[in-house]
Design goal:
Pfam families: DHQ_synthase, DHQS_C. By secondary structure, the protein is an alpha/beta fold. The chain is built from 13 helices and 11 strands. Helix 6 crosses helix 7 and helix 9 crosses helix 10. The chain starts with a strand and ends with a helix.
Length: 365
């Protein structure tokens, strides 16, 4: 069962390959790209313990010289200090412009490896091998790379496209349930912003809160349609000049929640889920979509085992203040992505602070 999706860009187009068991063929896939023989594989200890040797064996069997660099797990390590350590390993192993940095891990590893690749020797090859659902359907596609600043998420970064995204659904079997649910938040997002048929498929599933209850066919559909949705959007707007901003549905308030909770209490997917609930409520109050559609969205979020309420100790005023540091702020106005129907959204900067405050209070635990 192989799905290949083309990310078509004016420059630096690439493919997303989705195939069970493909990690064992990693070297063959990269050989087809005619890159240099040096590869720096970046991962975290947990992911490497499960899949590092499989990746290394495949790469070495295909004739690559492979070096490794490990970064401790967690969003708190997504810093410039961690990037400097990647640079050190690249220098120690004499990585050249023809060399490749390969991210084996979730979104944090992918973001940091991509940023390091974008900036080492002014840009070397970059390959994404995502191991979490969230990174498979979102973070590994589209070229956004970067690290966090103490005052905001992903404020330091660059657009830098990978040469290949290789997705092996079988690696999700070792993904913790909470992380699988976090990825489902992004899948639901695609259903709301772009693909009503995907949304309907998700509604028809018995359970979405644990990969153990998903058939291989449904998982392949989820991965393929989600990746296709992102590829379509990125292909039309690579650097977020307009349309691509819709991919931030749920992220406006979600990023604020992540930042205020120190990136450790609530994970990215959970924050996005809460952000979608907030955005859906705002849209209903502005009469942009129906209450029935809002209920359908929230039911799907709950079905995936995701939170729909803001923690009680999170101050609404702090959330509103944090929104001002968001990358989507333009001319001092916070831009929201709001749904107009299942499968379609719009971008607006005309959401009054009083309405944001009202909604935050309504969805508090």
């Amino acid at each position: 069962m192989l799905s290949v999706i083309a990310v078509k860009l004016p420059e630096n187009s690439y493919e997303i390959a989705i195939a069970p068991g493909s990690l064992t063929q990693l070297g063959s896939y990269i050989n087809k790209l005619n890159l240099g023989k040096k590869i720096l594989l970046v991962s975290n200890p947990d992911i490497f313990s499960h899949y590092g040797e499989i990746a290394l064996t495949s790469l070495k069997d295909s004739g690559f010289d492979v070096f490794t660099h490990s970064i401790p797990e967690g969003e708190v390590n997504k810093t410039l200090d961690s990037i400097a350590q990647i640079y050190d390993t690249a220098l120690e192993n004499y990585l050249e412009r023809s060399s490749t940095m390969l991210a084996l891990g979730g979104g944090v590893i992918g973001d940091m490896t991509g940023f390091a690749a974008a900036t080492w020797l002014r840009g070397i090859n970059f390959v994404q091998v995502p191991t979490s659902l969230l990174s498979m359907v979102d973070a590994s596609i589209g070229g956004k790379t970067g690290v966090n600043h103490p005052k905001g998420k992903n404020l330091i970064g660059a657009f830098y496209q990978p040469r290949l995204v290789l997705i092996d659904p079988q690696v999700l079997k070792t993904l913790p349930v909470r992380e699988f649910r976090a990825g489902m938040a992004e899948v639901i997002k695609y259903g709301v912003i772009w693909d009503g048929d995907l949304f309907a498929k998700l509604e028809g599933a018995d359970r979405l809160d644990d990969i153990a209850y998903l058939s291989e066919e449904l998982l392949q559909i989820i991965l393929t349609r989600s990746c296709q949705a992102k590829a379509n959007v990125v292909g039309k707007d690579e650097k977020e000049a307009g349309l691509r901003a819709i991919l931030n549905y749920g992220h406006t308030i979600g990023h604020a929640i992540e930042s205020l909770t120190g990136y450790s209490v609530i994970n990215h997917g959970e924050a996005v889920a809460i952000g979608m609930v907030a955005a859906g409520r705002i849209a209903t109050k502005l009469q942009m979509w129906t209450q029935e559609e809002e209920i359908r969205q929230n039911h799907l979020i709950q079905k995936a085992g995701l939170p729909t309420k803001i923690p009680t100790d999170l101050n609404s005023e702090a959330v509103i203040e944090t929104l001002q540091t968001d990358k989507k702020v333009k001319a001092g106005k916070v831009r929201f992505i709001l749904p107009t129907q299942i499968g379609k959204v719009t971008i607006t900067d005309r959401v009054p602070s009083d309405l944001i405050r009202e909604v935050l209070e309504e969805i508090r635990i």
